[in-house]
Every structure is written in C-alpha cells, then in structure tokens.
Amino acid sequence: MLKRLLIIYTLSRTPIHRMTNQFIQEQYEAAGQAHLFKHLNTLSASDKATFFENLTAVAQRESPSELLEDCQTAIKLHEDNTDKKSTLEPLPSTSYSSVIGNPQLEEEYYNLGHKAISAGEVAIILMAGGQGTRLGSSQPKGCFDINLPSHKSLFQIQAEKIITLQRLCNDCTIPWYIMTSAPTRAATELFFRDHKYFNLKKDQIVFFNQGTLPAFDEEGKKLLLANPTSLVESPDGNGGLYRAIRDNGIFLSILSQGALSISYMYCVDNVLSKLADPVFIGFAIKHDFQLATKAVRKRDAHESVGLIATKDGRPCVIEYSEISNELAEATDEDGLLLLRAGNIVNHYYSVELLKEKLSQWCDSMPYHIAKKKIQYFDNTSNTVVKPEEPNGIKLEQFIFDVFPTSSLERFGCLEVDRTKEFSPLKNGLNSKNDNSETSRQAYLTLGTSWLKQAGAIVRNNALVEVSNTLSYSGENLTKFKGTVFDKDGLYLE
C-alpha cells in the first residue's frame, strides 16, 4: 500500500487575499492591458466587483505578464520550422508491443491486469469537457445518443463497461474521475443524477473541472473581453488534465483509495474505448513502464492522425503535418508503414511517475496556439463583435507533451485492433469519417462479431447490439451458441 502523498506547491504571485482591485488593475496595465478598463467607470458597483473577481481568478493561474509571454512563446513555436530537422523514428521494439494476432500474449497481459484491478490498484480518468456542438447537440458530448437500438448515451455505455469489469474482477470498485469543463459541468452532473449514476455507486464517481485560459487578439498582445465583466476564456486543452488533477485534489483522492495507477485515461468520444483495459494494464505492469499509451495502425499513409514515435531518441507524438510524404509512405521489412502508430489518447500512468513529475508537468508544459473566430465585447463602442474570419488566438496544452520527459526504458506503446477499440465521434453526419453513423456501425459490428465467436448464427448481414452489462469484451455469450440472428435492430442485455 502506498503512503498517502501531499503535493505542496506555492504560487509565485501575490496571495489572493492581498490582491486589491488597484493591485489587479496595475498588474494588467503593466502587461499592456489598459484597454480592458476603458469602460470601468460605466459599471455599477456590483458589476465592478464581479469584473475584478474575474480578473483576479485569471491572474491566480498566471500573472498577466506571464500570460502574454506564454502566448508570444507559443506563437514563435508555431512559426518555427527548425524542429522539422529533428530525427523522427518509430519506437524501438523494447517500447512497442502488439496484441494483434497474438492471443497468447494478450491473455498473459490480461491476467496481470485482471490481478491489479481486482486488488483495487486501478483508477479511471475520463476527459469529458467537450460539447456536442459539431454533432448538432447542445448537451455535453458524453450525453450523445449515436442511435443504437437501445439509444444509450456514450456515458451509459462507458458506465456499463465499468460495472461488468468490476464483476469480472471479483466485484471490486473502480473509482471513476470525470473531468468536465465550465460549460459542461452542471449538465453532466444532472445527466448522471437523472440516470441514477447508471447503477454505479454515487461515491465512486468524482467530477472535476479542467482549467481555462483567456483568449488574445490575432497578434497575441491583447486580451479580449467576453462581456463588460469578464474575459473571453476557453478550456485549456487536454493537457490541462495534469493541472486539473493536481489543483482539484484528484491525485490525493486516488492515493487515499489505495489506487496504485491511473490505469486508463481516455476521451469520452470513443464508443469502443475499453475502460481500465486489463490487457493494457498488464502490458505496462509486465514491462515495468511508468507511462504507456495505446495505438492503432493508420488507415493509410496520409491519414490525418498524430503518430507515436521518437524524436531525437525521446518518445513523442508528432502531427501528420510534421513529416514528409516520403517518410509517411516509408515501410518496414514486413511491408507495414514505418510510422504507423496512430495516437488514440489512451494512457497509463504509474503513481510513482506522478509523484515525481506532476508538478513539473503543470508548471513547464508548453502552450500551443489555435487561430479562431472569437466573438468579443468592444468596450469603446459597447457592442459585441462577431467576426467572420479568424481574429484571435486561443491557447491550449496537449496531454502528450509530457511524453519526452520519459525515458524510452520506462515508456511503452501497445498496438491494438482499431475495429475493437477505436471509433471516435468527432464530426457531424455530413463528414466522411468519425461521425455518429461510423461510431454506431463500429459498436454494432463489434458486438455482432462477439456473437459469431460464441457460436451464434448471423444471417443477412444483421447487426446486433450486445449490451456491455452482458459482456465487457466478448465473454459470457456462449448461451447464444446456435441462436440465429437475421435482422437488424436487436438488443441483447
């Protein structure tokens, strides 16, 4: 059993109780943000208090001058092409393993992972801060119904996988930490309450918010107002997970429950995600990796997906745009793409690594820029401006930017079958891939394949929904041996 760990960190800035309105205004003005206060005298006493409270909250993360400096650094990083001279190579065999076509290895990993889960050594973190806007929904993405026969939401599908895995692992309890964002928190919690936490224990689920970062003008020199009393802010990217688990006490909570590893960190939009996957956990345990990730093979040489590889001898994720066509199309001695490990954002972290690195990651991770159309409040004309072209910059952090801090000896990547583990929901129905229809098809196809493996007879290309309350990954289906399924729309629970 690990001893409980107290992570102590200090803010280099003035404590919040000493941040007077005058002090805050001086800090922003010294950073070149005097424009934010042009309307100050028009605000009521109440609105003025709210305005300074919001400015103070932003400054508590980083001082205004530090924020501006970070933005300029991110712009330079974005524009700097010298990094393309780095040596990019696939991961060495000591860091890379595949369970595709290797059932014996998969079983070995599974047994190790099963033992760890059964012993209460595993916790799950879900990144669920996204909204379903691109899907045509006003709800958080996890509430989305991909039109299965059961009409279950993504949240329900995932909760039921946890329930079944707990049953398979000696009726253990797996803590589930759900990272939301300011726009999705209330709706997410209400959704869980309305659905009675999908039959999980209420106290095994912990909600917490990721952080936010202010937006800038297109030169990255001025902060933008959202309205008379607040700045434009947006979620700080999936890399904000590290700061969120530190600042919200999530890591301490994990330790207090005796969990030895954050075994499975995943994104809400992957309907095939194997939560707390025993095979993946066993892979990391077998090779004593402190940090591990999953990968699927690229669909083709030019699929727009980040790649897990090495850069100058350190593990990393590289964007498809960073590599030449020649390198993208290069193959190995087996005829497979040399760089084929597509990133699906499923990670394993040992607690020992988090003890050592968490605060360092929070304080030193780089920022990246995204040029966006940003609606803002113009306090000189008292109007809201709705741009038609990109007019500003949002900052974000990427979760994989910590990979290079790990040595290859302690970093692992497990290749898994895309058809069994990865079908993300990213786009609307008018897109070619990664929409609700492709997610639905992938989920039904997988469940139907389980029935076939169990000896069921499937005719007329029928697709059957197999509830995850019935099976986690194809087990417990022998009772359907010889059963005929010959039409779509069937649901087995």
Automatic annotation (TrEMBL):
**Which GO MF terms does the UniProt record name?**
UDP-N-acetylglucosamine diphosphorylase activity
The reactions it catalyses are: N-acetyl-alpha-D-glucosamine 1-phosphate + UTP + H(+) = UDP-N-acetyl-alpha-D-glucosamine + diphosphate
**Is Cytoplasm there in the keyword field?**
no
Alphabetized, the UniProt keywords read: Nucleotidyltransferase, Transferase
Enzyme class, top EC level, equals transferase
Matching entries from SUPFAM superfamilies are given as: Nucleotide-diphospho-sugar transferases
A Pfam family annotated for this UniProt entry: UDPGP
Q: Which CDD domains match?
A: UDPGlcNAc_PPase
Give, as in the UniProt entry, the pathway in which the protein acts.
Nucleotide-sugar biosynthesis; UDP-N-acetyl-alpha-D-glucosamine biosynthesis; UDP-N-acetyl-alpha-D-glucosamine from N-acetyl-alpha-D-glucosamine 1-phosphate: step 1/1
Query: In the Enzyme Commission scheme, what number(s) does this protein have?
Result: 2.7.7.23
The GO biological-process annotations, alphabetized, read as: UDP-N-acetylglucosamine biosynthetic process
Q: Which family does it belong to?
A: Belongs to the UDPGP type 1 family.
**What is the official name of this protein in its record?**
UDP-N-acetylglucosamine diphosphorylase
Can you name the source organism? Huiozyma naganishii (strain ATCC MYA-139 / BCRC 22969 / CBS 8797 / KCTC 17520 / NBRC 10181 / NCYC 3082 / Yp74L-3)
For this protein's source organism, the top of the classification is:
Eukaryota, Fungi, Dikarya, Ascomycota, Saccharomycotina
